[in-house]
Amino acid sequence: MKSMTGYGEAARMARGTKIAVQARSLNHRHLDLQLRVPREYLCFEEEIRKMVREKISRGRIDLFINRYPEKGRARKLEMDAELLGQYLASLRQAKRKFKLAGDPELSLLSTLPDLFHVREIEGDAAAERQGLFGALAHALRKLEASREREGRQLKADMQAQVRHLTRIAIALGERAEETVNRIQRPAAPARNGENFARAEEGAADALGVILKGDINEEVVRLKSHVAALGSVLQEREPVGKKIDFMLQEVQRELNTISSKVPQLLVVQLVLEGKERVEKIREQTQNIE
């Protein structure tokens, strides 16, 4: 069992570039992947999404990928040699025309417009691919480990609630048996003067009460659903939707029991059972 909330991060070096991956998962009914990657890695976007889908089936996933080239590797200073030649030719022409002395200083070059410019170096996506997917795989493993740790805590709490439901189902079974036994006890002998019609009417009423008050079938189904719920909690595959279904079945039986036997002790047990169901349902919102 895994929680839908977790966090994992990792980094790799590739050709002088640090590649950092951060993955965060939150609750969501379906898989919702929000991906942010540098433009150099846009060509890998579908492959990245596929890798995430193979690991995670449910939840909102925020995946951040960044690249940090080493200093001096991300940009390159370039000089326009052709433009410099034109500048020098113009200076020599001016020197001859105006009979100027001396030669231009090197420092003059820094003042000449548009002679130098800084160019961003495009990343080599193919060369960085191995580092990218290595960092992604490691971050996803850490994310899964985080989800599993929280999943174990949720599982322990849900198992405790299932044990309470099992106790409640057993107690309801005992109440059902007591109710039927009490209704089926032989009635006191009819007094002198009571006619056969009244006796027959009383028997019919008793039969109606028996049929309405017999919750044995509901209790049997309730026990079965609770046992199945406990088994689902042991599964390693995503179980969130299965748990939701089993809780609906448990809730249905509890509702039927309370409507058929509105006795105080039965109602109290049903209310406690519904409380346990609701606690499990709240936890299920975090389960993959």
Give the secondary structure arrangement, pairings included:
Blueprint: E1 6-14, E2 17-26, E3 31-36, H1 45-55, E4 59-69, E5 75-79, H2 81-98, E6 116-120, H3 125-183, H4 196-213, H5 216-232, H6 240-260, H7 264-284
Parallel strand pairs: 3-4
Antiparallel strand pairs: 1-2, 2-4, 5-6
Helix pairs in contact: 1-3, 3-4, 3-5, 3-7, 5-6, 6-7
Description:
Helices cover 57% and strands 16% of the residues. It is an alpha+beta fold. The strands form two sheets. The protein has a four-stranded mixed beta sheet with strand order 1-2-4-3, covered by helices on one side. It has a two-stranded antiparallel ribbon with strand order 5-6. Strand 1 (6-14) and strand 2 (17-26) form a beta hairpin. Helix 3 runs antiparallel to helix 7 (264-284), helix 5 (216-232) runs antiparallel to helix 6 (240-260) and helix 6 runs antiparallel to helix 7. The relative contact order is 0.15.
